[in-house]
Amino acid sequence: MNEFEKQIAGICDKGLYSLKIETLQVNLGLRCNQQCNHCHLEASPQRKEMMEWPTMQMVLKAAKTVDCKLVDLTGGAPELNPNFRRFVKALCQEGHRVQVRTNLTVLLEPDMEGLPEFFRKHRVQLVASLPCYLQENVCAQRGRGVYEKSIEAIKRLNGLGYGSESGLPLNLVYNPGGPFLPPPQLDLEKDYRRELGQRFGIAFTRLLTITNMPLGRFRAELIRKKEDENYLQLLRKSFNPQTVTGLMCRHQISVGWDGTLYDCDFNLALALPVNHGAPNHIRSFRPLDLRMRRVVTGEHCFACTAGSGSSCGGALV
After folding, report:
1. Model pTM greater than 0.85?
2. Dmax over Cα atoms in the chain, in whole Å?
3. Among 76, 166, 255, 303, which is least packed by CB within 10 angstroms?
4. What is the mean pLDDT of residues 286-310?
5. CB 38 within 8 A of CB 175
6. Which of 181, 179, 312, 184 is closest to 239 using CA atoms?
7. Nearest to 3 by CA among 262, 211, 256, 305
8. Where are the alpha helices (DSSP H) in the chain?
9. Contact, 160 vs 118, CB < 8 A?
10. 3-305 belongs to which CATH class?
11. Is 85 exposed, middle or buried (0-12, 13-18, 19+ CB in 10 A)?
12. Which residues partner with 100 through β-bridges?
């Protein structure tokens, strides 16, 4: 029994189990046009891992079988997958609600012409990474020039109705710039609205705060600065039992670029597939065995339960 399992023993005495599969999260590959300091998957332009069409076809079948409420596409930059538009079209034709996690700057890449209009046509929901409303903080996390490109991309999306029109949500994502927890989500959202509105006339739907996972490049930076143990202690000490019910692993399942099944995208980063007897590949997707599976946990899970909690949908409490 790991330390996280011991912590939740009083809440989930038989271990942490999923409750249902409302969301099917699909990682389309680890290639990205950026190389962010906080990326738990260490995505970059050099990565070659990419989901192929036959695997996407299995995902389409699984999505229909499980009758999920949302198919959440992520990466890397999911838009860089050669079959991205084909896959989104197929999902929409099957009647699925589709969400794409975009880094915004990819929308300005040479081969991405017309992608914002494609999103609007298919009523794709967007979750966009903008780790701060201040230029210097974004540049520190994501590189020079990223802030300006991100603002330009948001303006293009706003021009198509994203962030203001019903059915075209544009949610922004905040990540802390260091080894600390996010501030209260609603308070920070007010700051984002004020600053982005006054400076650029930008509109968005919601702000989602996500705690940095002690994985990938962020973990490497913690180790380099000898802050890794202090950060883990912060996450442990900030454990909030009220977050356990809403943990994303209890309401969704993640499909890796090669079809391997994970309880979450963070377990994907650690190569910890679904276990405890449940099928761990999309080719053997069985809803009855996966809906109430036992979740694979580890020390990193404290990041999701710290403070107000953290998930792909932002704060939990």
Report:
1. yes
2. 53
3. 166
4. 97
5. yes
6. 181
7. 305
8. 3-8, 53-66, 84-93, 115-121, 135-142, 146-159, 185-200, 216-224, 228-237, 265-269, 287-290, 302-305
9. no
10. alpha beta
11. middle
12. 73, 126
The 8-class DSSP code of residue 296 comes to P
Q: First-to-last CA distance in the chain?
A: 26
The bridge status of strand 70-74 relative to strand 98-102 is: parallel
User: Residue 135 is which amino acid?
Assistant: Q
- Chain position carrying tokens 């680890």: 30
CA distance 250 to 152: 36
Tell me the two tokens of residue 118: 């494609």
pLDDT of residue 194: 98
Looking at the DSSP assignment, which residues form a beta bridge with residue 261? 255
Q: Characterize the bridge pairing of strands 125-129 and 207-209.
A: unpaired
Tokens of 144: 């020079």
CB atoms within 10 A of CB 51: 27
Q: Per-domain residue ranges for the chain? A: 3-305
What count of Cα atoms within 13 Å lies in the side-chain half-sphere of residue 215?
23
The per-residue pLDDT of the chain, averaged, comes to: 96
Which residues lie across from 236 on neighbouring strands?
A: none
Tokens found for residue 188: 């920070």
Encoded tokens for 67: 């009758």
